[in-house]
Amino acid sequence: xxxxxxxxxxxxxxxxxxxxxxxxxxxxxxxxxxxxxxxxxxxxxxxxxxxxxxxxxxxxxxxxxxxxxxxxxxxxxxxxxxxxxxxxxxxxxxxxxxxxxxxxxxxxxxxxxxxxxxxxxxxxxxxxxxxxxxxxxxxxxxxxxxxxxxxxxxxxxxxxxxxxxxxxxxxxxxxxxxxxxxxxxxx
Length: 187
Hints:
This protein is an alpha+beta fold. The protein has 5 helices and 11 strands, in the order E-E-H-E-E-H-E-E-H-H-E-E-E-H-E-E.
């Protein structure tokens, strides 16, 4: 997803990545529904953005890694993706979630937090505001034990909100995510 234009300038402010320019915020949002404008609940269209964007840490890392944004610290020094991850304080689990995020984004999906559904992510084919997210994705560690009832609950929830439930995990050797899509069927 590397951009052919020069990277959008972002700043690390108090552990949060912000795109201060309104014009750049609009451009970045229109590139893939990245970020949330400060003080706004929903974005109708990029032109309605009237405040800087705040980027989720995983979005910021992805955009930095793909060179869509360049993040600067308070001393105006550019941060590479690895240093950005460290400065954002990403845990080992968050870095695993990042690999899932990056994988889903590379497949053309728009990825947002799934906290509302008790999951890791929701994903859109077209984007928020254009459709309801068709997928709920929850990440499990490869060796993490889980109660099968939890899987049934997640399946029932996803069915009731008309979303496909996807279990994401990681190949521990290749450190690459893989997915198991579950659908609720009636006998």
